[in-house]
Design goal:
single chain, 592 residues, alpha+beta, Alpha-Beta Plaits, 5-stranded antiparallel beta sheet, 24 helices, 56% helix, elongated, SLC13 family permease, transmembrane
Amino acid sequence: MIDQLLIGAILLIALVFFVWDRWRYDIVGMGALLLAAIVGLVPAQEVFAGFGNAAVITVAAVLVISHALWHSGVVDALATLVKKAGDRPWVQMLVLTSLTTFVSAFISNTGAMAIMIPVALQLARVNNGSASRVLMPMAFGSLLGGTITMIGTPPNIIISDIRAQATGESFGIFDFTPVGLSVAVGGLVLMWLVSRWLVPDKAGRNKSNSPYDLTSYLTEIYIPPENDLIGSTLYELESKVKENFAVVALKRGKNQITAPPRYQRFKAEDVLIVEADADTLQQILDITNFELNADEEIDERFLVSDEIKVIEGIVGHDSRLIGRSAADLRLRHRFGVNVLAVARHGQTLKPSLSNVRFKPGDVLLLQGDSEVLNDVFVRFGCFPLAQRSLRIGNQKQFILPITIFASAILLSALGLLSVPVAFTLAAGLMVVTNVMPLRELYENIEWPIIVLLGATIPLGGALERSGAADTLANAALAISQDAPAAVAIIVLMVATILLSNIVNNAAAAVLMAPIGISMAGSLGASIDPFLMAVAIGAALPFLTPIGHQSNILVMGPGGYSFSDYWKLGLPLTVLVVAMAVPIILWMWPLSA
């Protein structure tokens, strides 16, 4: 009993920290594992055994393959088909959500959304539409697509491995398809019918060609002859002014230097195009004795040139920017990149960015060299919103990754190779054949997910060994006492859905699977329908933006608030439960 109370307390504390989001979920998961090890709930030889689990290796391999398909242009080629859908909003909704759902069945949900969000935004701007109407259904479609195959989402991979440990045989790659595909089709139809009324129209954020009113903060400053700073560098000017500002261009006669480098020296009669709020602008004028060109017409043509671009990007769920400000990161000093604006929930934050701490889903407007910007996005875990050029290259590069990927699916489906071996081999071949450069191999594995899985798998074992899983299972069965066994499946699925909306879905699968197995044991039933219920519940957190990375990614570009998600998410969740349970029981009967 003491062990049950201890593991319950540890998991409850971890749950609180997951919701608080002060530390990233992998740190919380590892902390919970170490605490469980210290109090003796996890044997010493099993503390780090989770990192050698087949599910962890499979998830890593699938992430590598997903990026390789993205890098080769395969998914981009599919995305371009959307442009042929026409300018009718309902047709665009149908095509965007369907394509996102299909792609998510085979690559990571996050990777699919990173490709499709720019497409949706471009269509909205070209057709003067509202991207907010389609971005949330796209995110939910990516979650639905993940349920179609075993490799579509980490919870399916985890559940398959847990079944292998319990019965000696894992789920096959397409064993999830009857339930997942049915739910995906039903969910898409529901969203096509009702999203018009349940998804908010953030018209002010989406219908503008630019989400930021930068012209309000662009000012011309004139450097008069004989000024003391003539001959000084831009770096020296930045050192004198304490507040954060950006010199986005320098005009010298008929020439213009966009995003001038820090070593740029000033000459008499130079004109600086500065982005700053009123207080910072006044500080610059007081310190430098420069003059204000208040009567000049300023527009955004000064922001870009042949080499310098302005690109929007979303702060990812595990970005290195989270919790830090532009001043902390010194992006201007280190990379020559200006942070021009930050939008949160569709609203532009104050122009002085020195104290703005970035959050997941924030949309940043960055100015700099186009190649440097690409590196910055990768380095800091952001997703660019600019329309990407196709990376198809030649036909060989396009066909090869598809061949490798299809071969892995076929070999695993036929049982010639196990799923971990088939997909690890495919990931290796993607690198060996240079479909994905070797230098990008480890950069594109979501290590926080890997660490979280490695940490929570032993916790799931501790939950089972201590008897806590049996206790929770009996409590769940008590709720459904004297009711058909199908009610127990519903209770388990609903509990998993609620948990996955506040913690990472992989962690939800790991923690709820032992409870499902215990419920099956108490009823003398097969574990398969219970594991399938956990898989569906863990993969479909529609109620909150923090439930899944895809939900977070659309929060900024769509201008959504936290409370916007449940309006469409709740009826979609009800539909999923209503459809999934009878299909699960038909495909996977309770009789063992």
